[in-house]
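Before going further, learn to read the protein records used in this course. The integers have meaning only within a learned vocabulary of local backbone shapes. The record below shows the convention in full.
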Amino acid sequence: MRLYLSLLFLCLISLPTKKVIAQSIIALPIQPNAFSQAIKADNTLKMILHYGTGGLDETRVDFNTDATTGFDNLYDANKPGSAPGVPTLYTTMGTNLWYGINTLPSLTDVTTVPMGLRPDMNTTMSLTAEGINTFDPTTFLFLQDKKINIWKDLREGAYSFTTATNDNQARFVLHFTPPAIINAISASCTSLGSIEIQQPGSASWNYSIMDDANQSIHSGTLNVTSPVSISVLPGVYQLLLSDQNGYTVMKNIQVNGPLAPSSSFTADTLIAQVGQQIIFNPAVTGYSSYLWNFGDSNYAQTTDASHPFDTAGVYTVQLTVTDSAGCQSSSSVVVTIVSKQYTALLEEEPSGIKIWSHEKSIFVSLDKPTGITFIQIYNVVGTLIHQVKLPANDFKQEIPINETGYYLVGMIGKDRRFYQKVFINNL
């Protein structure tokens, strides 16, 4: 029994091993070394060759921050040739070395990788790509077939081609363009945020940036010579990119930072008499603080405010608000305060009518229907120098006067007239 087992063992170890090794290469995928198998790449493109009835071969291109363009023991793997008559797919980097795994530095510039094929068959084959989803959508991935001068976008699916046993092995080239670089700069209390986009390499896009209401706020061409930089409020924006072949990419861009508080406000009237209360209301409430400056050395720190003015004149009322982030905003309105020094020449001042002068203008205001249909202005010698027809109500008008002097302002109705003398100081 021992003699029989010994003879059997000798027979087994004396068999030729070349065929067994060749079959294992065909049947198994690339076997990288233990280190390259464990290290995760930034991007991975696996090219798979399909031939015959279920025949497969593959080669892989990885991009890793720490890799070089040469052979890296930690990242690269050699590619042995298949048995004679069996196709072999591989990549190179300007040397005679065949790569099963070819790891290159991170994709920051246009990169071309020669991909060789030893066909060993007169047949039809196809190439498919796996790992496209590991690349940014703005990265172009093209397969160039130098034999028939065709470029194939790998995102469009499989590429079929015919081979002959005497084909030049240096048939294919893989082309990679770097992705677009998108930066969102946060806003601050004193400045808007911004969106900045650069496109290295040869890619060119038509772009549009849309706000949260789906309205385009900026558009144009993006390429290496035409970067994009726009100022925006904090929020979420959508970037739409489209190339000349109709390939489109959509990306959301988040711009952080505080929204500027709104300090706008309204006044219940912009024309008031001396001592009359004017009520001011902010457009937005809920801020940390409100500071009112009425322009006459008086202030208030309430949300709403009301204020009488003791002297006739024009005042700039300012509101400054501060939100919880410490951001401030200010806005202002101008109010005109008039005295009650009217001179009724023909009858008492009608209710709802105000006439006054300030600097180089005469002001007329009708707060309610009065029956007045015309304004007439006469100079000191009684010449009519201005006339305007009035609407039925809510009429306010400023009438510029060029020369210093006294003027007579007439308010003319169907069955009534009212005149007031005013003085214009145009010096």
Summary: The chain has three helices and 33 strands. Confidence is low (pLDDT under 50) at residues 1-38, 341-348.
